[in-house]
Amino acid sequence: MRLNTLLSFLITVCFLAQTALAQNKTIKPDAVWKDSAGKRINAHGGCVISHGGIYYWYGEEKEKGLSEKEHADAGVHCYASSDLVNWHDQGLVLKLIKGETLSDLAFDSNHDRPKVVYNEATRKFVMFFKLYLRGKGHGVAYVGVATSDSPVGPFVYKHKFLGGGSPNGTGDFAIYKDDDGKLYHLSVRKPDKAFVIGKMRDDYLMPEGKYQICEGVTRHTEAPAIFKKDGIYHMLASGSTGWAPNPARHFTARNIYGPWKFRGNPCQGTNPHNNLGPDKTFGGQSNFVLKVDEQKDAYIAIFDINKPKHPYESAYIWLPIKFKGKDISILWQDAWSLDVFRNQ
Ligand code: DGJ
């Protein structure tokens, strides 16, 4: 048995045992979320993948006491769970280096919105993040790439690339792995803010060929999350207002390259913690949409409530997605459980 297979197996056994004892079954959007050791979960702008029966949540670790202006990113933190509710700390799987000035992993750089996918052919977990180099401002954004043999790291930084065929690169992005294993980088191009798509190489490490504009996706679309249901591609996204919330956007397409059709803002209801409703996406901005394993039509919309002055305190909103044909709705709920998918 390969070492990483053995490791995944041991993690699975360990979690199944721990989860059997765990009490918590409720997801409470915009509450303080703690891990199984009672520590605040620190994984922002991230994603959740499923591998070997375990979910892995990756997100930006924010250094306590630093604001976004002071470059709070400390690396990528990973948590693991078998039930999407009780999360076990797996530590920093990619670390920014304090004291470094020139490295792409220098502490004062920005590593935003990490996304991880598994490449079956190379047996590598591949991580992507939006990378602003230390001291170089926000005019040029790279895509940083790191790989690991195990879902719980360590991830080894490989290289960066400029997406979109632009010398300024691309900003917020989604990485979408299609049913045939092909991987796509969908992103807002800098500086013109057109929304573009590029196919990645079979090893997932670099784009191949030219990027194309996704016709129908509004310019200045940020925070994209792509998922597919019944052969239709869906994109949940936001507008472009820095760290401040704005109305969510939903698009659908039959072909991932487009044309995409705008379907409005799917959010409904009000977050009682901040009194913000659909016009501000409950105070949040989308990061990812997760398909729940072995449950038909079970998708969770994942948002962060950004707190740029105190990013360590940024909160999480996870809500189930309801479908009506190609339209979706995301209703605010103070508390919910995965049972909603069984009863739909
Ligand atoms: C909007 C992005 O969606 C956020 O993740 C973050 O990068 C901010 N911009 C920074 O202004």
From TrEMBL:
Transmembrane segments: none
Entries under Pfam families matching the protein: Glyco_hydro_43 (PF04616)
PANTHER family: GLYCOSYL HYDROLASE 43 FAMILY MEMBER, GLYCOSYL HYDROLASE FAMILY PROTEIN 43
Entries under InterPro entries matching the protein: Glyco_hydro_43 (IPR006710), Glyco_hydro_beta-prop_sf (IPR023296)
Protein name: Glycosyl hydrolase family 43
GO BP, one annotated term: carbohydrate metabolic process
Keywords, alphabetical: Glycosidase, Hydrolase, Plasmid, Signal
